[in-house]
Design goal:
Blueprint (H helix, E strand, L loop, with lengths): L2 H9 L12 H6 L6 H12 L7 H8 L17 H12 L7 H10 L3 H13 L2 H6 L19 E3 L6 E6 L2 H6 L1 H13 L2 E5 L8 H5 L3 H15 L6 E4 L2 H14 L7 E3 H7 L11 E5 L3 H6 L4 H9 L3 E3 L15 H4 L1 H17 L4 E4 L2 H14 L4 E4 H9 L1
Parallel strand pairs: 2-3, 2-4, 4-5, 6-7, 6-8, 8-9
Antiparallel strand pairs: 1-3
Helix pairs in contact: 3-5, 4-5, 10-20, 14-16, 18-19
The protein binds iron/sulfur cluster (2 copies).
Length: 392
């Protein structure tokens, strides 16, 4: 979007408020400036020079979770999250809370594996101390080694298809066991799996910090290497990566990776969850925002869970309500993030389920943190772990 398009987009707002109906930051803080309509009004005033760029204004724009709950709600067709990305690019130098993260991300993204070594050291030394004092939020154990190595091709007997994985940073560095579970399922079902070493971050963290050009560089590298692959689908366990690649790459990076797909969609399309062994659990499901609002995938995970024998599925109230994670939002707006997460946990407990299933590594991180805060004993699993367990 160029400057002219951006300001004309913002000027379309008629202040109806439809966009704030499900806005988690507004519903939690009940503050107009922390809601979708307020943010669009502030950005409009900024582009018309009615408001100066300030730290306070940038805080309002960076407090958006980028959850997409306001997507498609605007009667005049404003793409609210794209307007917020543009606002962040313009305001990033006024956003003080993000300074350290911006520098760290710029320095580390070209060499994520070196950052991983530094993170592992930090996790063992300083992290427990800072976590106990409430300075930092819960982080899962850093993996002993990243999931991705050199180019990996996993062959199988009686091949029925060939897929690639878009691993994503969270699975690569924090949840490699989710990648292992996915590999196990795909190979046992006859899929040859390719994992590319050249994959880089999808760019979502960069965009969220207002580093648009850096996100473009990363996206274009992914587009280049993944579009060369001869596979039927490119699967991801992270709805944020999938949504950004599918919906946003065409808008900001001038291209797309057509074959990217969320694992739930792939499993239902290819009937991969049938004929599994029975497992006894009372399960409820939390819809990750980027999967339900961003990709419109709601039925598939339920179909999978209901299709596994022994699972008693209990629907929670408003399952698509955000858990409050939002990547860097959970670090920079800790209290707001925790308030939203605690509200979610209360709803989860009302179902009486013993297991909470979701499809997003980020939601798992957030809900594990809230679980510790609230003394909950619920088991939290990614849907891929449930499937792997039912496969034996
Ligand atoms: S993306 Fe989510 S948090 Fe941001 S304005 Fe829209 S609904 Fe609110
Ligand atoms: S829904 Fe659209 S027109 Fe209505 S307040 Fe939100 S941005 Fe403005």
């Amino acid at each position: 979007m160029n400057k002219l398009q951006y300001s004309s987009e913002l000027s379309k707002c008629v202040r109806c408020g439809a966009c704030k109906s499900f806005c988690p930051t507004y519903l939690s803080a009940l503050d107009e400036t922390l809601g979708a309509r307020g943010r669009i009004a502030l950005l409009g005033a900024l582009t018309e020079n009615k408001l100066p760029p300030t730290k306070e204004l940038s805080d309002r724009i960076f407090s958006c979770i980028l959850c997409e709950a306001c997507k498609d709600l605007c009667p005049t067709g404003i793409n609210i999250s794209e307007a917020i990305y543009q606002g962040r690019t313009d305001l990033k130098n006024y956003y003080r809370r993000g300074r350290l993260l911006r520098t760290a991300m710029k320095l580390s993204l070209p060499r994520m594996d070196s950052l991983f070594v530094v993170l592992k050291g930090f996790y063992k030394s300083l992290y427990p101390f800072l976590y106990k004092r409430g300075k930092l939020r819960y982080l899962p154990d850093i993996a002993p080694k990243p999931f991705k190595g050199s180019l990996q091709v996993y062959k199988c007997e009686k091949r029925v298809g060939r897929v690639a994985l878009f691993v994503g940073c969270s699975v690569n560095y924090l949840f490699p066991y989710l990648g292992d579970a996915l590999l196990h399922i795909l190979i046992s079902k006859g899929y040859e799996v390719v994992i590319l070493k050249g994959e880089v971050c999808c760019g979502a963290p960069m965009r969220s910090l207002g580093l648009e050009q850096e996100a473009v560089t990363l996206a274009q590298k992914n587009i280049r290497i993944f579009n060369k692959m001869r596979v039927e689908s490119i699967l991801s366990l992270c709805p944020t990566c999938t949504m950004v690649i599918k919906n946003q790459y065409p808008l900001f990076a001038g291209g797309a990776i057509e074959k990217i797909m969320d694992v739930n969609e792939f499993f239902v399309k290819n009937n991969i969850y049938s004929g599994l062994k029975s497992i006894r659990k009372v399960v409820t499901y939390h819809d990750p925002c980027h999967l339900c609002y961003g990709l419109n995938i709601k039925d598939e995970p339920r179909e999978i869970l209901r299709g596994i024998g022994g699972i008693e599925f209990v629907e929670m109230q408003n399952a698509e309500e955000c858990c409050g994670f939002g990547g860097f939002f959970s670090l920079n707006f800790k209290e707001l993030s925790k308030d939203i997460g605690k509200k979610k946990m209360k709803i989860i407990h009302k179902t009486g389920a013993d297991t909470l299933v979701t499809s997003c590594p980020g939601c798992i991180m957030q809900l594990e943190d809230i679980k510790r805060d609230t003394g909950s004993d619920i088991t939290i699993m990614h849907i891929i772990e449930v499937l792997a367990e039912a496969m034996g």
